[in-house]
């Protein structure tokens, strides 16, 4: 289980609590596009792309869908500590 006191940098000074993440997926498949559309209609979509192309969709345990301009592979590396991106909440 992930440490509940860390965040994952998802680009442009945006962060997500690591323990809230259920999945990090490619946003280009039809089912994920539908999920993004439904989240937007329910006002559960968070766009953290900074105006750049969407490369990943992060599914949170709260039902939120968070869009990022960083690829799922790079976010996975950050989440597993093989890249910069995980920050203890106490240091924020």
Describe the protein.
The chain is of the alpha+beta class. The protein has one domain. The chain is 22% helix and 33% strand. It contains two helices and seven strands. The strands form two sheets. A four-stranded mixed beta sheet has the order 3-5-6-4, sandwiched between helices. β1 and β2 form a beta hairpin.
How are the secondary structure elements laid out?
Elements: E1 6-11, E2 14-17, E3 21-25, H1 30-41, E4 45-47, E5 56-60, E6 65-68, H2 72-79, E7 86-88
Parallel strand pairs: 4-6
Antiparallel strand pairs: 1-2, 1-7, 3-5, 5-6
Structure in a nutshell:
The chain has helices spanning 30-41, 72-79; strands at residues 6-11, 14-17, 21-25, 45-47, 56-60, 65-68, 86-88. By secondary structure, the chain is an alpha+beta fold. The protein has one domain.
Offer a few descriptive terms.
globular; three-stranded antiparallel β-sheet; four-stranded mixed β-sheet; 92 residues; alpha+beta
* Helix count from the secondary structure assignment: 2
Strand content: 25-35%
Radius of gyration: 13 Å
Structural class: alpha+beta
Gap from first CA to last CA: 22 Å
Domain count: the total is 1
- The count of strands amounts to 7
Give the biggest sheet: 4 strands, mixed
Uncertain regions: pLDDT < 50 for 5+ in a row?
none
Mean pLDDT: 88
What are the secondary-structure elements, in order, as H or E?
Answer: EEEHEEEHE
Strand order of the largest sheet: 3-5-6-4
Q: List the quaternary state of the chains.
A: single chain
Helix content: 10-25%
């Amino acid at each position: 289980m992930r440490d509940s006191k860390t965040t994952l940098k998802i680009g442009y000074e945006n962060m997500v609590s690591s323990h809230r993440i259920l999945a990090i997926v490619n946003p280009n498949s039809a089912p994920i596009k539908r999920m993004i559309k439904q989240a937007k209609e329910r006002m559960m979509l968070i766009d953290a792309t900074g105006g750049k192309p969407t490369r990943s969709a992060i599914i949170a345990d709260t039902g939120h869908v968070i869009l990022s301009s960083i690829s799922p592979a790079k976010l996975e590396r950050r989440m597993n500590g093989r890249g910069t991106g995980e920050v203890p909440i106490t240091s924020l």
